[in-house]
């Protein structure tokens, strides 16, 4: 029987380098002829575009509406992106997943753990490994301020500190912590090694 291709998630604060790292890893795997694909959440489907309006400040949502919108987009992400790719035998690299929703949407209304449990109650699968790019909130803010794009609603020091603490409270046992200050190429090599090890075990 063919080994399980593997489902791997990249998490961390905005500015930690998740998107860059996931693309680097995809390039490494592709050059070795390993079937793989890279996705991100929110998706590029209608449900994800709706969320991006909220993230950019164009749309206001209550706490419950935010969580509902993320759950809806995640269902689309799984049904249209992740599960079909796994069925085709491809390694799936995902930039943000349910841990981001739990960390970013947590607050007075809902704890990070409560939001994570709501995701699990939907039957969303756990990744084989979660790669967490650890970065101090102050460093993340400096990186974000250096970007040319418009700021998103979560890009302030106090908010980033809250999000980092929330992450720390929910990261699962299969988390691989990475120093976000390492060179992207070095990080990609570390991640690729871990992924190929899991793939070789046929998990």
From TrEMBL:
Pfam families: Thymidylate_kin (PF02223). It is an enzyme of class 2 (transferase). It comes from the Bacteria. PROSITE patterns: THYMIDYLATE_KINASE. ATP binds at residues 12-19. GO terms for molecular function: ATP binding; dTMP kinase activity. Residues 10-188 form the Thymidylate kinase-like domain. SUPFAM superfamilies: P-loop containing nucleoside triphosphate hydrolases. Gene3D superfamilies: P-loop containing nucleotide triphosphate hydrolases. GO terms for cellular component: cytosol. GO terms for biological process: dTDP biosynthetic process; dTTP biosynthetic process; dUDP biosynthetic process. Its EC number is 2.7.4.9. InterPro entries: P-loop_NTPase, Thymidylate_kin-like_dom, Thymidylate_kin_CS, Thymidylate_kinase. Keywords: ATP-binding, Kinase, Nucleotide biosynthesis, Nucleotide-binding, Transferase. It catalyses: dTMP + ATP = dTDP + ADP. The keyword Kinase applies. HAMAP family: Thymidylate_kinase. Phosphorylation of dTMP to form dTDP in both de novo and salvage pathways of dTTP synthesis. Belongs to the thymidylate kinase family. This is Thymidylate kinase. It comes from Leptospira fluminis. The gene is tmk.
């Amino acid at each position: 029987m063919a080994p399980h291709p593997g489902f791997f998630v990249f998490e961390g604060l905005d500015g930690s380098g998740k998107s860059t790292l996931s693309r680097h890893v995809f390039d490494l795997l592709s050059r070795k002829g390993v079937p793989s694909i890279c996705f991100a959440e929110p998706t590029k489907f209608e449900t994800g575009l709706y969320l991006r309006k909220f993230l950019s400040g164009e749309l206001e949502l209550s706490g419950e509406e935010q969580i509902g919108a993320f759950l809806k987009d995640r269902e689309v992400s799984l049904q249209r992106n992740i599960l079909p790719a796994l069925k085709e035998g491809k390694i799936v690299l995902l930039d943000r997943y349910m841990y981001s929703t739990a960390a970013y949407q947590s607050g007075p209304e809902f704890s990070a753990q409560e939001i994570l449990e709501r995701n699990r109650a939907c039957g969303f699968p756990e990744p084989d490994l979660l790669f967490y790019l650890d970065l101090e909130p102050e460093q993340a803010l400096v990186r974000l301020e250096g970007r040319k794009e418009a700021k998103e609603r979560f890009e302030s020091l106090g908010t980033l500190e809250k999000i980092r603490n929330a992450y720390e409270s929910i990261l699962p046992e299969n988390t691989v912590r990475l120093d976000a200050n390492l060179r992207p190429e070095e990080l990609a090599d570390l991640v690729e090694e871990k992924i190929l090890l899991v793939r070789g075990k046929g998990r």
